[in-house]
C-alpha cells in the first residue's frame, strides 16, 4: 500500500485518472441506489403495515372465533440493490454488461434501449459524469491521502441523497445516520476537526434547523422542512466542526431561495409548493468542505 501511494504521489495525473474511472463506476451504482432505495423503503413500510394489520385482524377474528386467511406476500419477487438485474422498464429486456459501462454505454445506445428503442434518461450518464468529476477534483485537491478517501465516500453519499431527495423529497436514515456517526468517529483523531468541535457541530447542526422547523410550524401551522434536513446538516457539523455550519446554512438558503424564485418565475413551480432542501445543503456543505476557510477569511477581510 505504501508503495502504491508513493507511485500515485509521483504520478498525480495517473491517480486523478484512475479516480475518475473508479468514481464513474461508483456513479453507475449510485443511479441504482437513487432509483431502488426509495422503492425498497416503501415496500418495507407496506410490509410493516400489512404485518400490523394482520396482527390486528388476528386478534379480532380470534375473539370472534372466526378463521383468518393466511396473509399474502405483497412482494413475492426479491428486490434490493443487487437483484433483479438492470432491465428496460418498458420491454423488460436485461441490459447487457457492455451497455452498463459508465457514460459510454449510454452513448453507444444513443440514449435508447437496444431492444425496443425506448428513451433512456440522460440523468444516468450525468450522475456518472458528475460523480467522476467531483472525485477527480478531490484526487487533485487532496492527493492519495486518507482525507481523499473519506471525502470521496462522503461525496458518493451526498450524490445519492441529492438524487433521492429530488425524486422523492426524502433523505433516508440509512445514509444520513451512518454518515453522522462516521464523522464523529473519524474526528476522534482530529482528521477534519477536533472531537469537541465535531460533537458540538453535530448537535448544533441538528438543533439549529430543528428550532427553525418548530418556530415556522408554530407561526404557520405547516411543516417547513423534513427531519432529514436536520440530520444532513448535522452530518457536516460532525465531519467538519461547528465552524462550517453558518456558511453551509447561508449558502444553502441563498441558493435554495434563488432556485425557488426562478422556478416560480418560469412557472415550473406553483407558489406554496414544497421543494427539496437537501440538495442545497449537500452542495453548500461540499463547497464548505473545500473552500469554507477561504470563503470565511475573504468575507471577514471585507468587513
Automatic annotation (TrEMBL):
It holds the Pfam family Peptidase_A24. It is found in: Cell inner membrane; Cell membrane. Belongs to the peptidase A24 family. The keyword Oxidoreductase does not apply. Its EC number is 2.1.1.-, 3.4.23.43. This is Prepilin leader peptidase/N-methyltransferase. The lineage of its organism: Bacteria, Pseudomonadati, Pseudomonadota, Gammaproteobacteria, Alteromonadales. Plays an essential role in type IV pili and type II pseudopili formation by proteolytically removing the leader sequence from substrate proteins and subsequently monomethylating the alpha-amino group of the newly exposed N-terminal phenylalanine. GO terms for biological process: methylation; signal peptide processing. It comes from the Bacteria. Its main location: membrane. Coiled coil: none annotated. The chain crosses the membrane at residues 12-34, 148-166, 175-193, 199-220, 232-265, 277-300. Residues 153-261 form the Prepilin type IV endopeptidase peptidase domain. GO terms for cellular component: plasma membrane. Residues 21-142 form the Prepilin peptidase A24 N-terminal domain.
Amino acid at each position: 500500500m505504501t508503495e502504491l501511494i508513493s507511485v500515485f504521489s509521483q504520478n498525480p495525473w495517473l491517480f486523478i485518472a484512475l479516480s475518475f474511472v473508479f468514481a464513474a463506476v461508483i456513479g453507475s451504482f449510485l443511479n441504482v441506489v437513487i432509483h431502488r432505495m426509495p422503492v425498497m423503503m416503501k415496500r418495507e413500510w407496506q410490509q410493516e403495515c400489512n404485518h400490523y394489520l394482520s396482527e390486528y385482524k388476528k386478534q379480532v377474528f380470534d375473539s370472534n372465533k372466526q378463521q383468518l386467511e393466511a396473509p399474502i406476500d405483497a412482494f413475492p419477487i426479491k428486490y434490493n440493490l443487487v437483484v433483479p438485474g438492470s432491465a428496460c422498464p418498458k420491454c423488460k429486456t436485461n441490459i447487457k454488461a457492455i451497455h452498463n459501462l459508465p457514460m459510454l454505454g449510454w452513448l453507444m445506445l444513443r440514449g435508447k434501449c437496444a431492444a425496443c428503442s425506448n428513451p433512456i434518461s440522460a440523468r444516468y450518464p450525468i450522475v456518472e459524469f458528475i460523480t467522476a468529476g467531483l472525485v477527480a477534483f478531490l484526487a487533485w485537491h487532496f492527493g492519495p491521502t486518507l482525507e481523499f478517501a473519506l471525502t470521496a465516500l462522503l461525496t458518493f453519499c451526498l450524490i445519492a441523497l441529492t438524487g433521492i431527495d429530488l425524486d422523492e423529497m426524502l433523505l433516508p436514515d440509512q445514509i444520513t445516520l451512518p454518515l453522522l456517526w462516521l464523522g464523529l468517529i473519524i474526528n476522534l483523531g482530529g482528521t477534519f476537526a477536533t472531537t469537541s468541535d465535531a460533537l458540538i457541530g453535530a448537535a448544533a447542526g441538528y438543533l439549529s434547523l430543528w428550532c427553525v422547523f418548530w418556530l415556522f410550524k408554530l407561526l404557520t401551522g405547516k411543516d417547513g422542512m423534513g427531519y432529514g434536513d436536520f440530520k444532513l446538516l448535522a452530518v457536516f457539523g460532525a465531519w467538519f466542526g461547528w465552524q462550517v455550519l453558518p456558511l453551509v446554512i447561508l449558502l444553502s438558503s441563498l441558493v435554495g431561495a434563488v432556485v425557488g424564485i426562478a422556478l416560480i418565475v418560469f412557472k415550473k413551480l406553483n407558489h406554496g409548493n414544497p421543494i427539496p432542501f437537501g440538495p442545497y445543503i449537500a452542495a453548500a456543505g461540499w463547497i464548505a468542505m473545500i473552500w469554507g476557510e477561504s470563503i470565511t477569511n475573504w468575507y471577514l477581510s471585507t468587513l
